[in-house]
Amino acid sequence: MGCGCDKKHGKNCVCEIVKEIIDAQNDITENCCITSCEQSINDLLGETEPGTGLDTVPIILYCEGNCKPFQGFGALPTRDVDSVGKMQGSFIFRPKKMLHDCCAVLELVRSRDESPDKCGFKSPCEQKTTNLEATGICITVDLKCFCHITCLPAVSLFNN
To answer: Pfam families of this UniProt entry (predicted)?
Structure first.
């Protein structure tokens, strides 16, 4: 059972928000919150001020059941056919694509200032959030397995 999301009618709140973010990012809408999913989407779409140059709403997901932040892992390819590249971990993701049945492709987002040798973090607060960049490492997740989403302020990952 989740931690408060309405799943009675086949909808999942995390799935719906991620889908909305992906739609907004692919299309490159005021509330009283300084930071929220709605505000980040509005900033991305330029609803608050025109020509922002923003292209990403970074997100943090929380696992269903234990409601702890989810950390994804992956490795960049290497030329060595007998091994994978250095493992990378992140709590921050860029939604890339919605798949069927509430599954999505998420890209790990990390700081350029973060050591590439740093694989995992103990908490999202430990991870640097300055000079964020797309890693090219993508994972596929079932969004029905998450009960909470935090949208970080919209950023530019591709115009730097």
So the answer is: Spore-coat_CotZ
What is the reported pTM?
Answer: 0.78
| Domain-wise residue ranges, the chain | 13-151
Q: Where are the beta strands (DSSP E) in the chain?
A: 59-63, 72-75, 87-90, 93-98, 103-111, 132-142, 146-151
Q: Residue 155 has which token pair?
A: 């950023």
Judge whether 112 and 138 are in contact, CB under 8 Å: no
- Distance from C-alpha of 142 to C-alpha of 122, rounded to nearest angstrom: 23
108: nearest Cα among 68, 149, 66, 140: 140
The helix/strand count (H/E) of the chain reads as 2, 7
How far is residue 44's CA from residue 24's CA, in Å, rounded to a whole number? 7
* Tens of each residue's pLDDT in the chain, 160 residues: 344 454 545 566 778 888 888 888 777 644 456 778 888 888 888 866 666 788 999 999 998 777 899 999 999 888 887 888 888 999 999 999 999 888 999 999 999 998 877 888 889 999 999 999 999 999 999 999 898 999 999 999 987 5
